[in-house]
Amino acid sequence: MNVSRRTLLRGTAGLGLLSVSGLAGCSTAAPGTNSSPAATGAASGTASEAAKESTEMVLWTWPEGFGKKVLEAVAKKFPQYKLRQDVIGGEFKQKLTTTFTAGSGLPDITGVKGEDIAFFKTQAKYFVDLNTIGAGDIKGEYLDWKWAQATTKDGKQLGIPIDIGPTALFYRFDVFKEAGLPSDPKELAAAIRSWDEYIELGKKLIAKKPNTYLIRNAG
Question: Is 121 helix (H, G, I), strand (E, B) or coil?
Fold first, then answer.
């Protein structure tokens, strides 16, 4: 693919599009070769066919991987490029791995789930080192530990984070107060600094107020 990936990387990173708990750029040439679909098209087809291919990119994600607004924002920022999202159902990791092994039908960009990035770091030969297209220029915009999750031992950058998975606890302070439990946010935070403490708090809550759970679908 002859698309200016440096330009696309620079623009879409601000939109949170390129990632590896999110997306990684796939190498369009099979391991051990120097060819790419765009290069092959230019050699065997017309110049117009090669030009068309160079402006099209395929993105693989799982269901609900990216919202419509994100893709619309990319299209607006890069009207000269056509980014097609293919939503892959079922076992995403397995399908991506099978496609790598087959050596054909590879997407230009793919999502990689956070729990799978360690595995795909062992498959670095299938990915473009994003350092070669300017990833280092935007490294400072991300948390070091999250960025490092997609960095191989020899320094290749396989992807760029899309999020860090923050979570928050919502609770009924009136229910906690009735049960004699910490109801002030600061007091509650101090009382549940670990999962063990969280579980113990739940036991106290249900002892004071039967059929009242910390987790909505518990029981």
Answer: helix
Q: What is the mean pLDDT of residues 195-215?
A: 91
Beta carbons within 8 Å of 143's beta carbon, 6+ residues apart: 161, 164
pLDDT single digits (tens) 46-105? 434 444 555 888 899 888 777 788 888 888 988 888 888 999 989 999 999 999 888 888
Amino acid in the structure at residue 200: E
Residues 113 and 181 in one domain: no
How many other C-beta atoms lie within 10 A of the C-beta of residue 121?
A: 20
pLDDT score of 112 more than 80:
yes
Same domain, 139 and 177: no
Both 15 and 75 in one domain: the answer is: yes
pTM above 0.70, yes or no: no
Range of the domain at 62: 5-160
pLDDT score, position 203? 93
Task: Find out whether 156 and 31 touch, Cβ atoms under 8 Å.
Answer: no
- Answer for the pair 106, 16: CB distance below 8 angstroms, yes or no: no
Residue 71 Cα to chain centre, angstroms: 14
- The residues near 101 (Cβ < 8 Å, ≥ 6 apart) are none
The 3-state secondary structure of 48-106 reads HHHHHHHCEEEEEECCCCCCHHHHHHHHHHCCCCEEEEEECCCCHHHHHHHHHHHCCCC
